[in-house]
Amino acid sequence: xxxxxxxxxxxxxxxxxxxxxxxxxxxxxxxxxxxxxxxxxxxxxxxxxxxxxxxxxxxxxxxxxxxxxxxxxxxxxxxxxxxxxxxxxxxxxxxxxxxxxxxxxxxxxxxxxxxxxxxxxxxxxxxxxxxxxxxxxxxxxxxxxxxxxxxxxxxxxxxxxxxxxxxxxxxxxxxxxxxxxxxxxxxx
Length: 188
Known about the structure:
Blueprint: H1 2-19, H2 26-119, H3 129-158, H4 161-187
């Protein structure tokens, strides 16, 4: 701003000289020389300021480029994360379907074994009616547990921690009940 003011004053003196016929008077020449000396004295300071501005612009451009690169990398990472999450969900779904199928087969086999024991009522020797009724109740419990097991598998698919815990307990109970039924059937 000070440099602009000095140039304005120089231009003002030159305009006065031009109006006076092109010849400067000694006071005008002294004012003109003083302003030009001040301009020359400020030149190193102005050059340094211009150099600092150029450095600041270069630093800003570098920072902006680095910021754009970071944003691009962040988008790439997010895209890769999304792809990995999708792939993991697909794999979990496939594994859950396999577990669901295996559990269904196991449950069906246990139910069929219990039903076979109940149907063999007349062929089983020395089985009291209370025991047969207990087996019938166990059959109903197994069917209920099979429904609970299906809920368990669906809970795994939905990542439901409470449902998962309940499903594990139900699955364990089913295995225990089926094992007890088979042991009971084999023992008698």
